[in-house]
């Protein structure tokens, strides 16, 4: 059985870049890797509805913090069996956004911190009631809010289909969300956390990923990631 690692952070923080770097570093050491990204807007009806709401559709749906959180939770619940199978089959499962995203963004929208009722509700809903598997480890990509926002704008300029949604375009929300993420790290919420910085660019992030994977592969501290396994790269969703 392998380890499942959730990569978290603000919109535009560099989560996908870190997931790719972690996967490459693990494969280079002979580990088998699976990857999955949430929300699965094109693959799950609940995520699709949430994505449409973030762009102004479905009336006042976006205004309900709990309703949006339930849609994102149901997306993960729909992938729970796939995630468990991936963890059984591979040495390392990397997830771009997971349960902590729901907790951080929802709490930030409600003006709560990590000790508030919303974070506890998300854990009870996703892990307790819906059976979403808890990760073995979590990584927060910590980046200044303005840099994250700049990356979102550049991404949208390069790809017209990536118009910033209601969360991505709300700078105040992003700032509150960053504070909640830091609190989740301090409390080791759901699983142990590692914090990496993404403000030095892709090369530095890649070096950080290589160091992180090397430490855990050699120590075995993040699940049964075994060097020397046959190399296989299976992407569930990116």
TrEMBL record:
Homology family: Belongs to the thymidylate kinase family.
Name assigned to this protein: Thymidylate kinase
Keywords: ATP-binding, Kinase, Nucleotide biosynthesis, Nucleotide-binding, Transferase
Reactions this protein catalyses: dTMP + ATP = dTDP + ADP
EC number(s) recorded for this UniProt protein: 2.7.4.9
Ranges of residues in domain Thymidylate kinase-like: 7-157
Function: Phosphorylation of dTMP to form dTDP in both de novo and salvage pathways of dTTP synthesis.
Pfam families xref list: Thymidylate_kin (PF02223)
InterPro entries tied to this protein: P-loop_NTPase (IPR027417), Thymidylate_kin-like_dom (IPR039430), Thymidylate_kinase (IPR018094)
Enzyme class: transferase
Sequence segments annotated as region (Disordered): 216-238
GO MF entry, a single one: kinase activity
């Amino acid at each position: 059985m392998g380890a499942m690692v959730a990569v978290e952070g603000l919109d535009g923080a560099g989560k996908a870049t870190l997931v790719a770097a972690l996967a490459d570093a693990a494969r280079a050491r002979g580990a088998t890797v699976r990857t999955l990204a949430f929300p699965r807007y094109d693959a799950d009806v609940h995520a699709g509805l949430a994505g449409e709401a973030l762009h102004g559709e479905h009336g006042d749906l976006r205004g309900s913090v709990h309703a949006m959180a339930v849609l994102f939770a149901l997306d993960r619940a729909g992938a729970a069996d796939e995630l468990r199978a991936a963890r059984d089959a591979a040495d390392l499962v990397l997830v771009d956004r997971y349960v902590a995203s729901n907790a951080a963004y929802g709490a930030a929208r409600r003006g709560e911190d990590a000790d508030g009722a919303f974070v506890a509700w998300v854990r009870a809903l996703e892990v307790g009631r819906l059976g979403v598997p808890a990760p073995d480890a979590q990584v927060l990509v910590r980046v200044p809010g303005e840099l994250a926002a700049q990356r979102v704008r550049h991404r949208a300029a390069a790809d017209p289909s990536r118009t910033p949604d209601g969360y991505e375009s709300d700078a105040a929300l992003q700032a509150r969300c960053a504070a909640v993420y830091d609190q989740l790290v301090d409390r080791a919420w759901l699983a142990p956390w590692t914090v990496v910085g993404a403000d030095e660019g892709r090369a530095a992030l890649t070096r950080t990923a290589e160091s992180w994977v090397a430490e855990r592969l050699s120590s075995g501290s993040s699940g049964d990631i075994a060097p020397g396994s046959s190399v296989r790269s299976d992407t569930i969703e990116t």
